[in-house]
């Protein structure tokens, strides 16, 4: 049962990483340390687990349950926990939702089913979300992929989802077109029953936030949660000068984290935490593989440029 029953997804929400041992088993002690490190940052509203950043695609349901248990033990009394629902079938998604609620999750981030890359209808999307909402009363977050992937929901489908599934409270918006992103922010947050837009456009976060998002949900928060929280506060305060100053520090990390191939973004974030002395190793599960020494060197340069690495005083400090 959630310890934060009134939680509505909004604000600054880092998506944490999942450390592994060399044999690919979960490194529980370092996961606990990572959770404590990230959530020591002031100004967070929640954290996210069992999502892209924790390599959920390679985790079994038992491993996802263990990740939830650890997160609940470490931070569940202080912050709400958002649990990802990654499943190709709606019945499995409902089972994950029930497991997450039983483990203490406060909201669910619902990924689009992979079969939607082959085509989808509004009725299919509704069936998926209704099956999940029938299994739990937790607030749901729609993960809106780019429409070009086939897994993004057209505007008419989103409208039906919001009208017919009342537990949907937010959208994690990965819309890459600025005009469409702004249109969704205005339309969804202006509804009679508002739907909060959480930006996941971390490669251009300042631009996204100034359009009016009511929050952000970001894997790079595993490394720069403090900078993101301060940027969000500056935007909310209409302090553009401070927001631009903070964005100048965030930009070097965004440039290297979200380089091609995009799928390596969280791989790179693990390497950044190793460079910062916060993880002992940057192991990822296949099919992901370790990035090159040249790319690690570029990450080191970016951390130095961002003012996060370079002197003994900066090592081990949480992106202050």
Automatic annotation (TrEMBL):
Which controlled-vocabulary keywords does the entry list?
Lyase
Looking up InterPro entries in the UniProt record yields: Aldolase_TIM, DapA-like
Q: Which GO terms describe its molecular function?
A: 4-hydroxy-tetrahydrodipicolinate synthase activity
Q: Does this UniProt record's set of keywords contain Lyase?
A: yes
- The answer to keyword Repeat applying to this record is no
Q: Which family does it belong to?
A: Belongs to the DapA family.
UniProt protein name: Dihydrodipicolinate synthase
Naturally occurring in which organism (per UniProt): Bradyrhizobium lablabi
């Amino acid at each position: 049962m959630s310890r934060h029953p009134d939680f509505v997804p909004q604000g600054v929400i880092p998506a944490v990483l999942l450390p592994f041992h060399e044999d690919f088993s979960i490194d529980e002690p370092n996961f606990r340390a990572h959770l404590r490190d990230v959530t020591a940052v002031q100004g967070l509203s929640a954290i996210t687990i069992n999502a892209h950043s924790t390599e959920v695609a390679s985790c079994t349901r038992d491993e996802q349950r263990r990740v939830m248990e650890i997160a609940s033990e470490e931070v569940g009394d202080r912050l709400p926990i958002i649990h990802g629902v990654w499943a190709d079938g709606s019945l499995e998604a409902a089972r994950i939702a029930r497991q997450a609620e039983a483990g203490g999750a406060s909201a669910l981030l619902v990924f689009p089913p992979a079969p939607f890359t082959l085509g989808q209808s509004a009725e299919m999307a509704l069936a998926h979300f209704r099956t999940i909402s029938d299994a739990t009363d937790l607030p749901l977050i729609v993960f809106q992929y780019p429409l070009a992937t086939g897994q993004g929901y057209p505007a008419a489908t989103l409208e039906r989802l919001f009208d017919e599934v009342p537990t949907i409270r937010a959208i994690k918006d990965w819309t890459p077109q600025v005009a469409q992103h702004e249109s969704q922010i205005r339309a969804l947050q202006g509804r009679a029953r508002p739907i909060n837009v959480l930006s996941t456009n971390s490669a251009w976060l300042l631009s996204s936030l100034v359009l009016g998002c009511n929050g952000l949900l970001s894997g790079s928060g595993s490394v720069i949660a403090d900078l993101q929280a301060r940027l969000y506060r500056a935007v909310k305060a209409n302090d553009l000068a401070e927001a631009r100053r903070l964005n100048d520090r965030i930009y070097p990390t965004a440039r290297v984290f979200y380089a091609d191939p995009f799928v390596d973004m969280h791989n790179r974030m693990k390497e950044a935490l190793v460079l910062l002395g916060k993880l002992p190793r940057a192991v990822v599960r296949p099919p992901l593989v370790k990035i090159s020494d040249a790319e690690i060197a570029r990450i080191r340069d970016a951390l130095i440029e961002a003012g996060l690495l370079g002197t003994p005083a900066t090592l081990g400090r949480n992106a202050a």
